[in-house]
Structure formats: C-alpha cells, structure tokens
Amino acid sequence: MSNLVIMESPPKAVTVKGYLGSGYKVVASAGHVRDLPKSTLGIDIEDDFKAKYINIRGKGPLIKELKKEAKNADKVYLATDPDREGEAIAWHLSIALDIPEEKIRRVTFNEITKKAVKAGIKTPRDIDMGLVNSQQARRLLDRIVGYKLSPFLWKTIKSGLSAGRVQSVATRIIVERENEIRAFNPEEYWTIDVMLENKNHGKIKAKFHGDLNGKLELHNEEEAMKVVNAVDGKEFSVRSVKKAIRMKNPAPPFTTSTLQQEGSRKLGFQSQKIMRVAQELYEGINLGSSMGGVQGLITYMRTDSLRIADEAADAAKAFIVDKYGEQFYPKERRIYKTKAGAQDAHEAIRPSNLVNEPDKIKKLLTTDQYKLYKLIWDRFMASQMASAELDTVTADIEAGGYIFRSSGYTVKFQGYMALYEETEEYTAPNSADTDTPEKSLKLPKIEQGDILKHDNTNPQKHFTEPPPRYNEASLVKFLEERGIGRPSTFATIITTIIARGYVVREGKSLKPTELGELTTKLMVENFSKIVDYEFTADMETDLDEIANGVNTMSGVLHSFYDDFAKTLETAENTVEKGVYELPVEETDIVCEKCGAKMVIKNGRYGKFAACPNYPICKNTKPLAKDGTVVEEKVVETDMVCEKCGSPMVMRTGRYGNFYACSRYPECKNTKQIAKEIGVNCPLCGAKIVVKKGKNRSVFYSCERYPECEFSSWDVPTNEKCPQCGDMLYQKKGKNILICKHEGCDYKREIEVEENEQDSEN
Description:
The structure is a single chain. The chain is of the alpha+beta class. 30% of the residues lie in helices and 25% in strands. β22 and β23 (606-610) form a beta hairpin.
C-alpha cells in the first residue's frame, strides 16, 4: 500500500519524511496551487458570488507531478497547516489534483515532532468545509473591496493605489493617532521631591502627594511654590507606614498576537520577521543525529489559544522542580482562560520538547532563531511557575499640612521572575504619578511618629506629552483588542500598508504619509463603514460563524455587498476629480528645458524631480536619497549597439553605472555592468557575476547566462560542502552557509564583517 502525504512547505516536508516509514511519500505544494485570477475580479456576483479559481501561473508542472503521485497512491494525506488557510489549501489540492473522495485523508500537526506526526496520521478526518468557506469568504471580501474600490482611488487621487478591507482600517488607526498628536496641547504640571534623613542618617526620597484631605495636582509655579514655602523650616513627621506582601503573577504563554508584541518590544524584531523565524522553528531544525535529527522546536505559531496540553504542563512541572526547586512551582497547576471569541483549535505557542533547552542547542540555530526560541521557551516556562512575592512599603510624611509619599518594593521571592519578566508598554507621562512604587527601593527603618531631618526641596516643572505614535507592538495590541483582522494576518497588514506608501517607519514608530492621510480622508468621508472599527471587527465574527456553521458564506457576502455597491455608486457619482489632491512639493531645481521649478514625484523606484508642465515638458531628473539630483556621467566605450550599430556609452543612473546606446532614448538598448564576485560557475567554469532582476532584486548568475543556466538568489562561495563536496552558498540576507545538493542538509552559521555584507545598491 502506498501513501502520499502533501504538505505546504518543502522544509516541513523534509522533516516529516524523516518521521514516516518507507510506505509514505512526502511532497510539498509550496503554498496555494489555485487562486482567483489577477487580471479580473474572478467572482460572479450575479451567480451567488461564485468564485472562478484558476491554477496559479508557474504551478503547472508541480500540479502535473502531484496529480501523477496522487493517482498512483492508495491514500492521499493532505497535511497542510492546521488553520483556515491550510484547510483551504487542502480543499484546493483535492480539486486541482482531481483526488477521489474515498482516497482523501485530512491530517493536521500542532507540532512537527515524531510523536505528533504519527498521532496525526493515525487520526485523519474529512476536510472541514466550514473552515474552507470561512477562508473563501475572507478572500472574496478582500478581492471585492480591492478590485472595486481601487479604481475609484485611481480616479480620485492617483493611479496605482489600492484599498483593502483591513489595511484601510489599520492606516486609519495610524492617521488618527497622528491627528491626536497634532491636536495635543501640552499642559504644565509640577512635582516636588524632598530629601529626608532618619535619626540613623538613612536617606529617604519622598514625592509630593497632596494635603490632609487627599491627593492634589500642582498645575503651575504659584501652586508649587505655595507648597514649598509652607513646608520650609517645618517639621517632617511620619504620619503612617504601611507594609505588605504583594503577589505578582506570570504572564500567560504566547499567542500569535502577544508573540508579535513581545518580540517587537524585547527583541526589536518586525512582525514579519517574527512570523518568518517562528515558521522556521515550527517546521524543523536539524539538531544532528545524536539529538533526533530534524525536529520542530515549537508548536503551531498561528493561534489565539492559551490552552496547554496536559503532557506539556507535566513536563514543565518536572523541569521547574528539578532545576529551581519545589517552591518555584505553584500549589496548583496554572490554567489560563482563552478570551471569548478566540479560535481555540490549537495550543498556545510553546516549546515542542523541553529537552531542547535554548542554550543546549544555541550553536545549531541562527542568531534570530535562538533569540526567538529563547523568548518562547522563557515565557512558557515562566507561565507555569510560582508567583513572585514583593515586599512593599508606603510611608506618608506630613509637613506644614501637606503629605509627601515614599513608596517602593523589593523582591522577597523571585518565583517566575527568576526566569522572565514581561516588557511593559510605554505610556506618555501626563501627570505626577506618586502612587507607582519604585522597584528595589528599600526604605531605611522608620516608624509612625518619627521626626525626619529635611535636607532639601526640589520643585520641577513638567509638561504633559502627547500619546506616542504606534509602533508594531502597540498597533498589534490595538488590532487584537478591537478584534480587527486576525493575529495571523497582522504582520501582513503592517507590511502591506508600508509597501503601498500609506505608512513609513521612523525608527520603531509608524507614521502616516501624506498619501496615507489623504486616502484615509477619502475613505472616512465616502466609505465610512469600510473603515469603521466595529464593522470590521463584526466581520471577523461573521467569518467565525461561517467556520462554526452558524452563518453561510453566501449570507455574509450578500449582507456586505448589497450596501457596499450602493455606497460605491454614490461616491462615483458625487466625488469630483480634484477634490482629493496630494500637495505638490516644489524644489529649487530649475528645468533646463522650460525654466519652471521642478516638483518632487513618487515613482516605482522612489522619488524623482519632474517638470510641473508635464505633459508639454516631460523632463525628469533622478534624485538621491538626500534629495539632491543624481548627476549623470557619460563615458565613451569601444562597444557597439547590436540593435542600431551606434556606439555604446557608459551612463550613471540612480542605481549606478550601466551601458546604453548613444542614441538613447531613440534607441533604448541598455546593458547592466556585471560585477564579478571572485567565484567560478560550477557548471561551466566561467565567472559568476551580480545581476539585477525585476524590482531591482539582486541575483547571481554565470556571465554566460542564459546560455549557461546557472543562477542563484543566494550568494555562491568558493567553499565546498564537507559532506558532499558541492558548492556552499551564503543564504541571502543571513549569515548562514548552506549546501543545495539534493538530499544534503549541511548548514552552519558564519561571522561576516559589515563591509563584506552584500548590498543591493
């Protein structure tokens, strides 16, 4: 009996292949094999929103091969990812490969370990059409909004823009925060600190709290100096001393959302990077034969659940008791409650096997993999540990009818804090917060009624600050709290709004562009429902209801589209061209053809200077990153243009030197100047050179390409694989050497000096 297992990811397929016997063949679909066409809407709205799926371009040979394998197999296990997207891919595969229903077995793995994979294979189920239809509904909704609304943006603002059901809401969130910052009026407030001493010369710092009736805020210098004068020369007496033990509980294990937030705050990783590295940890890392070979190190990283398997909790208890002692484990096992409405199909994110301690396998991981794995490990283990105990003390000290407070805490018992502490989100200071105890502040011995010596008084003026701009962590938190989108889509949402020019990064902050603000203005004024927070969150509930069988795909799509179509028609009939215009940024660059001052425009490859008299004058100039004009140099060569026979010249453009016909632009023949990297082609022995493909992306090829077929996105090196002798490559953008020979899994991390890093410029 032959069994075929189809997975999404090639690396994961390699891992699973090692767990199953010779009776199983494991292959990968490399993601989706069918989708809506790019050139048309692909949805028959009149025929109850029937989707017109087609095979994805370039996947034809793969589909043909998979179809052949499926035909020859007795059973076909569709082992795509255990979420809605994975369920939809399994369904598309069943149709594209024309697999008979009696052959299909749907299996899922929450973690890529030998035990989990074998258990999954033993418990197959049918394809869950509720999950499939939920994914389809999301895909169709997003397609309708994008394909129907984007042309309206082209007509009213500028061509090339796009609208998205969730991306437009995310942009609005960032724009509204920017408007809050602009509208913010700083308000003055004052703090007063006093330095005191007890009879044993122990130093005590106390902050102004209020008067005998309660807490007071000081709004100006006059109010502050009234207090300063009132206590000057007066006796400072201890009015009360309160001591207590406060219990501090650990944070729960990670969900997708909290992993993105903490990974951003603690590691400085962008959301997209966090999800990419987590995917690598989930799919499998080669730990060597002595440690079980290729293993998935974490459970599935797209989850809303806080649930932990009993087996994992028991293993955590044994580890904690053994390493830290009985007192570091709580009296009862910690069980965290998943919030209402969350998808609870999978566990929280945790290590798959506690034997694989981060520091024990550090040398087998890349730097980023180690950092994220350690974060997941520490958070999970801490979530199972005992609470920390804090000794807190608060002393109220009275002088001249006013109260000064000194408060702090010291750690009495570390508990989970011996391993991990959650990072706190920054909030702008908007008043004197005298009630927040200072960490590790241990007051010298004082008792109620003690008289303290007054050393000095320090009044200080402050101003309230506007709310901070969103960063990736705080935006993800806002999206999750409002139920906008799904945690598994947050990284894509952020990447999309940046890639489309609606938002830019300033350091770690997210700032809207003029384009983002103008587009949001148009959306709010004409499509308020699309960018309404509540409406978008309710749509997620509708999609959940489809998955749970409470609602139907047709019902949700009709409910949305009927209103949307009317709104779009109204906007198209009422909004005139020119109402929403981007401001023009004028420069001091004078157009040498007509004398007008040139303006800055945004093009496919960034900003450039253009004549404002376009299309009468079509003069443009490339701009460097600092806004200065890139001076073009023309150097004669001995080359001849093969298209027209004219001499070729070397010119300088935005991206460096290139060869061009001297009759350019009448003859548009151009050639890249190939840069050698000092490595010979493994196929023919010629030189390997750096080339640039579409979207200016760098790749490496034989100088005889395409006559010689050698090309690679990764960097070829002169180093040979110690296992098979083939060429080693440096993984693009990473300090890792890999072997690409089929069946060879050699990989190692290397140190690369900064000036040796490959550049795309």
